[in-house]
Specification:
2 copies of one chain form a homodimer. The first copy, chain A, is mostly helical. Chain A is built from 7 helices and 3 strands, in the order H-H-E-H-H-E-E-H-H-H. In chain A, strands 1-3-2 form a 3-stranded antiparallel sheet. In chain A, a hairpin with a 7-residue loop joins strand 2 and strand 3. In chain A, helix 3 crosses helix 4. Chain A is elongated. In chain A, 25% of the residues are buried. At the A-B interface, helix 1, helix 5, helix 6 and helix 7 of A face helix 1, helix 5, helix 6 and helix 7 of B. The structure holds a DNA duplex.
DNA sequence: TATTGTTATACTCTATAACTATA
DNA sequence: TATAGTTATAGAGTATAACAATA
C-alpha cells in the first residue's frame, strides 16, 4: 500500500500505529470476556478508582460518549455487581458510580493482567523501551 | 495508577499504548464521519484494493468478525455506493466485494487524509521516527 | 460432508430528543 | 434558565444458530 504525503517514516509509523489499533480492537473483546465484561466496560472499570465514586456525567466525558449511554452501561455493570450508584451529598441531581468490593477486586485483577500482558514489549531492549516511552508520552499527551 | 508486575518501563509503555488505543477509539468515529462512514467501514474500505475484489469470507477473516456481520456491513457499504458484490467465476458460492469507481476514489482520499494526519508524529526527530518504526514493526508483526 | 453467504434473533454501544428533578 | 440523569427510539456492530446453494 503506497501512500503519498508527509514524510515516509512518519507515515509508516502512523500506519503501524493504526495496525496496532485495529489489532487491539480485534483482540480486546475476547480478552475482556475473561472478566465477563465488554472492552468498554473494562475501560470504564479501570477509570473508576476504589473509594472514589465518579459522577455519571464525568464518566460520560471520560468515555467521550453521550450521557444517555452511561445509564445503560452502568446498569449493566451494576447488575454484574461490580459498581453501585451512590447519591451525591452536595447535589441531589448527581449520582456517582463507585466500585463495590467485588468491583475493586475485579479491577485489581484486570490491571494486574494488563500489566502482565506485554509479552511483545519484553523483547525490546532496555534502551528501546525507554525511548518508546518517551515517544509515546509525546504522542499521547500532545 | 500503580501497577505491579513486569518491568516498570515495559509496563509504562504498554499503558501508553493503551491510552493511545482509547484515544483513537474516541476520535476515529468522528474522523470517519467526514467520509460518511463508520470506523469499521473505513477499515473495510482500506482493506479492499482497487480492481481486487475480496471474497466476503476473506473480508470476515481480515476484520476478525463473524461472516454473518459482513452481510450487513457490505449491504451498508453497497447502499452507500462504494462497493459492489461481484460473483466469483470459479466458485458459484462465493461473492466478492469490489470497489466501485466512487469507492476507489473515496478510498484514495481516505488514505491520503490518513497520511496527512500524523501531526503529532511530525514533532519527532528523524532518528526518533526511524526507531519508532523499528519498534512498532516488532510489536505489530510479532 | 463441508463451505459460502444469508436470515433470524438477541445483546451491546452509540446518538438524538424529550422528560424529571433539581440547581 | 441550565444541568444531571433517565427514558424512548433508532441504527450500527457483534455473536450464535439454522438454512439454501454449492463444492
Amino acid at each position: 500500500m503506497v501512500i503519498k504525503g508527509s514524510s515516509g517514516q512518519a507515515c509508516r509509523a502512523w500506519q503501524l500505529l493504526m495496525r496496532f489499533f485495529f489489532a487491539q480492537r480485534e483482540h480486546l473483546p475476547g480478552w475482556a470476556e475473561q472478566f465477563g465484561l465488554s472492552s468498554i466496560q473494562c475501560h470504564a472499570l479501570h477509570l473508576i478508582e476504589p473509594d472514589r465514586p465518579m459522577p455519571m456525567s464525568r464518566l460520560a466525558r471520560a468515555l467521550a460518549c453521550d450521557a444517555s449511554n452511561v445509564t445503560g452501561l452502568v446498569d449493566r455493570l451494576e447488575s454484574r455487581g461490580v459498581v453501585q450508584r451512590v447519591p451525591s451529598t452536595t447535589d441531589r441531581r448527581v449520582k456517582a458510580v463507585g466500585l463495590t468490593a467485588a468491583g475493586a477486586k475485579l479491577r485489581g485483577e484486570l490491571l494486574q493482567r494488563v500489566a502482565m500482558r506485554p509479552h511483545p514489549l519484553s523483547r525490546l531492549s532496555r534502551a528501546e523501551r525507554r525511548l518508546l516511552v518517551e515517544i509515546l508520552e509525546k504522542l499521547v499527551d500532545g
